[in-house]
Structures are given as C-alpha cells and as structure tokens.
Write a structure and sequence with these properties.
Number of domains: 3
Number of strands: 20
Strand content: 25-35%
CATH architecture of the largest domain: 2-Layer Sandwich
CATH topology of the largest domain: D-amino Acid Aminotransferase, Chain A, domain 1
Strand order of the largest sheet: 13-12-9-10-11-14-19-17
Bound molecules: adenosine-5'-diphosphate
Structural class: alpha+beta
CATH superfamily of the largest domain: ATP-grasp fold, B domain
CATH class of the largest domain: Alpha Beta
Amino acid sequence: MFDKILIANRGEIALRILRACKELGILTVAVHSTADADAMHVRLADESVCVGPPPSKDSYLNVPALLAACEITGADAVHPGYGFLSENARFAEILADHNLHFIGPKAEHIRLMGDKIEAKKTAKRLGIPVVPGSDGAVMPDQDAMAIAKAIGFPVLVKAAAGGGGRGMKVAHTEADLALALTTAANEAKSAFGDASVYLEKYLQKPRHIEIQVLGDGRGGAIHLGERDCSLQRRHQKVWEEGPSPVLDAASRAKIGETVAKAMREMKYLGVGTVEFLYEDGEFYFIEMNTRIQVEHPVTEMITGIDLVLEQIRIAAGGDLPMQQSEVAITGHSIECRVNAENPVSFRPSPGRIQQYHPPGGLGVRIDSAVYQGYVIPPYYDSLVGKLIVHGKTRVECLMRLRRALDEMVVDGIETTLPLFRALVREPAIIDGDYHIHWLEQYLAGQQPG
Ligand code: ADP
C-alpha cells in the first residue's frame, strides 16, 4: 500500500480522496493555488504545498510544481481526482518516469479513450454497441454529405478531441450540414487544438445511461450497475440517479456484462465509466471516462462500495473487492449538483457564503468542501457541493430529497437550489419520464416533449 498520497486537485473531490486516504491510514499531501490557501482540503491534509497562482494552468495543471511537491513531501503516489490532469496520459507517464504511482488506469488506455474516434472503434471491436456514424474522422477529400445521407438526418458533428460538450453541432437537414461542419471544426480547433470531426446519428430523445466498472488490470473486471444522467444543461449533468427509472434487472445485467467483458479483454485497471445513449431499448456507446466521476456517490450509495478507496487499493496492486455475483444493488439514490450560479440565468455567483446549513438525517449525504464564511473563488468550477440521497425505493428517495433540499441553507451567494426544489416536484421527474433534452426545454419554458 502507498505511504503518502499527493492529491492533485481541489474542492469536494480533494476532500473525498482525503477521506478515503484517512480510512486507509495513508498520509495526505494537499496542493493548492494561492487562491485556495484557506480551502478545506488544505486544512484537513497532513501536509500542504502551494503550487502556484490562481489560474489552473499555473497551479493545478503545473506538472513541474506537482513533481517538486512530491519530491519535497516524499509522496509515493498521486491521485488526480476528476478534471485537471485526471485524463492526461502524458502526466501518468511522467509520474512513472519519476517512480511515482498514478492512481488511475494505464496510460495507453487513457490515451485510447481520450481520442473519441479510437474509443469508438475500440468499443465496437470489443462488442459494445455504438451510435451509427462515419467510420472515423471525416477527411477533407471525403464527401461529408454522402456520409451524412447514408447515416440519415439529423446528424451530429462531433470533435474527435471533444469534451464538456464543446465542438458539437447538430445538422437537422442537408442545408445545415456545411455550417455545422465548419463551426464544429473551428470550435474544436480553438478548444482542443485539433479540428478533426466525425459524424453520428443524432438521437432525438435518448437517455444518458452510464455503466460504472472496476478492473484489476490483470483481466478481472466487474460492473456496478448504471447511473442515469439524462438531466443535463448544455451537455453538463445536473441531476444523476441510480438505478435508471427505465431499466429492468435483465437489461442491466445484459449491458453490464457486455461492458465488464470488454474491460476484462482490455485488462482495464481501476475505476471507469462507459457512457451510453439509450433509446427505444437500445444502447449506443458515446465515450468512456477513465477516472472517478463527479456522480460516483450514486453508485456508492446503492452498492455500499467505496469507489475511491477501492481505486486506491487497486492502484496499489490489490484485488477487486468482490465478484460480480456478490454485487448487490440496494434501493435508489439521487445526486443534485448544487452550483454557485443564478438558478435562472446560470450566471456564476462566486463570493462569500454567509450562512451554511447542510441537511442531515438518514440517507442524506453531502460531498462538499465549503463552510460558513468560505469565499468561492471565481477561477474554478462553480460546484458548491453535491447533495446525495438514498432511499429504499425511488419514491422514498424523492420524498427524502424534497425535505433535504428544503432544509439546506446556502446564503450570501446565488445557488441552483431553487431549481432542484422545483424539479423534485415536477410530475415528469417524479415519474422518471425525461430524456437528455428535457431540462433545456423545461428551462426555456416549453412543455418538454
Ligand atoms: P463530451 O465528451 O463533450 O461530454 P459526449 O460524447 O459525452 O461528449 O456527449 C455529451 C452529451 O452530448 C451526451 O450526454 C448527450 O447529451 C449529447 N450527445 C452526444 N452524442 C449524441 C448523439 N449521437 N445524439 C444525441 N445527443 C448526443
């Protein structure tokens, strides 16, 4: 096992990792920018190192400073959390070159899945169903219109290097295609430095359903059921739940086993999430995330497995915590991402939290790094915290979520709490009857179709 882990992240996920380390008896090193000197993860860690000024590129993404911090503190492993360097294969290799462990998958798998076109090819080869689309990137000498017609309109133009929903444009008709291709390519070029795009069938009302996996890197892998993340705004997840309101045990077992088998074949190491769109009973692979995800607590609540703790154990050469037949899904869980944003305009609302009262009671969990008097800096994401609720059934979970949301107080800044208080009372949400465009239609004041 590791002796000392450096946590190359901030906010709630840094705290989440720190908690797992404490339970395992591993010493922790927090790193922080000058803007985060008062952050909770810094206060709770055994040691802390300032790695640079506020902008992420100068601090949390500053590889030489992170290596120096490992050297100074004698850390033997680095946990990247999510975002920042978590899906940077080069960073994993650099750590290895310095005899440091990267708590994450093998660099080759990070690289493979980071390229969406290669990821899709790999998924297909491993027997995972994919969205119908172009065979790889659309080359300048290719007739994009012919490819699009063969797929059938509407089509989605997607950036090969995409992430966070950027570099994605829908062409509803033939007339839209040329513009969608140039805008997506330009956006991809400026956001990722790579203009290559590919085409996919645009699914009209799919759900986003993702499968959580855990692999030992030696050909053993299990799946831990699914999370339904269909409630999204601008391709960003807002509300996640598990199990999905639309899957039964047989379809869960079938897709879960397909994914687990693929992971065994790849000899995948650590935690990962295989994301699908789901429409008319069919799954379509969209991407794989080779890291811990924001919404991982949903799975923890319904399986009782501490994913971050297992991730660390497995990175240190440990075995899978159980066999597939021992994985049991119990009850229902919902996570709300409470952001420091205006609940109507979604304008960021950084600043000082004057009053903070997190909800409590049976089945209520808060993953957050804020406290009363804490100032949310303007430089990073606007997550205040995640409210995660568990109940024996979905109905009980919704009842509990309603009262937990009513109990929660975050004053001094604007938050998205009012949005969740409204959502949890919406008939379509209560019925579990929503798709990936539902929330945007609802926010636009339309009757979601
Ligand atoms: P990113 O890496 O940018 O997040 P993804 O491929 O994961 O991109 O897609 C993000 C979101 O975009 C999905 O959750 C879904 O809402 C939408 N999306 C992606 N592909 C399609 C598609 N073929 N049809 C309809 N919506 C899609």
